[in-house]
Amino acid sequence: MSLTPPRPGGPRPNVPVILDGEEVLAFDGETILDLARRLGSPIPTLCYLDGLSVHGGCRLCVVEVNGDNRLPLACATPVSSEMDIRTDTSSLRDHRRRVIELLFAEGNHICASCVSSGACELQDLAAENDVDHIHYALEFPRIDVDATHPKYVLDRERCVLCTRCVRVCDEVEGAHVWDIAQRGSQSTLVAELGKPWGDATSCTWCGKCVLVCPTGALSFKGRSTGEMRHDPDVIAFLARLRDEGEWIDREEPAP
Amino acid sequence: MPTADTETKGPGATSDHPSGDDRFELLDKAMRRGRYGQDQLIEVLHVAQEVFGYLSEDLLLYVARALRLPPSRVYGVATFYHLFTFDPPGDHSATVCTGTACFVKGANDVVDALAREHRVAPGSTTEDGRFTLKTARCLGSCGMAPVVVVDGEVRGHLHADAAIDEVAARLATTDDRDSEEAV
Q1: Most buried residue, A30, A77, A169, B4, by CB count within 10 Å?
Q2: ipTM surpasses 0.90
Q3: Are the C-beta atoms of residues A118 and A99 closer than 8 Å to each other?
Q4: Chosen from A167, A168, A192, A199 to mutate, greatest number of chain B CBs within 10 A
Q5: Would you call A193 and B79 a contact, using CB atoms and an 8 Å cutoff?
Q6: Considering the entire predicted model, what is its pTM?
Q7: What CATH number does residue A168 fall under?
Q8: Tens digit of pLDDT for each residue in B143-161?
């Protein structure tokens, strides 16, 4: 679900909607998130990543439509005619703050000792949404660190279960090493049959899961506190090249 | 629960299946019936558990290969549902209903009594692999509360002492070796 740039001569936006009180035109089938981003209206996201399928798990991109109490996901809801969309109300801000607080309460997110501190999407979200303390009792789960892979480290304590790594491994790399096992608060990221990552024979060592991780859960081995830098945007680039058939040898004569 | 039919055939029984284990044939049949559809995964896992008693790692890999699914997906689905178990069940089992009616009639005492008697936590198997203690939410036989399913047989009005006797009797029937200990 990548952002569709308006092309000259292509379809023109023709769906009238109201975005934060302003009358705008959306493309047919465009999601609320794509529309808001195209018009420069920021909606916070966590699990969403350009170039991957929509997961709709983090619940940060919720918006209000027609003053309804139910909050649709901007990333998964296509616009329809005459929608009255609000992306930034006090109740939405409150909701997002709670979601972020719950994410912090659920894992062991200790920024001071984290490889991704300073370049962490969870940290940024907390700062942008004025999360200065956590109202919920911290769980302090005891979770193992998996450093069995020669190049990468998985620290499940910092995992927010956004499934970006699961999706990128399945949809872009085509290996599907990762998946989510168990359920509810027991949910955990697993490689193959719950094996140590280093023993996973289907892993190609490509490292795309590490690049897309929003927190310090996946990192390059040997990085110290605050040294890890991810690069999630590379996936949209790869997905675009793939969709355009960039790797197909055009010189080859047709059979 | 393994059926009586499959229990008699163990690994090593003569079979046409390359593994030499007849039980894989039943599993293959179920997958063929579903045309090896990937959306048949849960159905196939049910059959696998019914035939083998539990889902071993090899079994999960076998299903993953046959349905052309990534092992992590199969593992993820199997661990999501409480009905799937990954440890071999004991020779005998007791499932205590902990639904509302049974709870009122003292189901917790039954669970505690059986757990103490056989030194086993609810949901697990004794170290010698002879007895599995399980709990379940309402079995729908509230008029017979408290209900315990012993070796697949529903027994009603089974209070703590009676449940201990019942399980002891089961453990004694098919095992000569340590029947004295069990009783």
Answers
A1: A169
A2: no
A3: no
A4: A192
A5: no
A6: 0.81
A7: 3.30.70.20
A8: 998 999 999 899 999 999 9
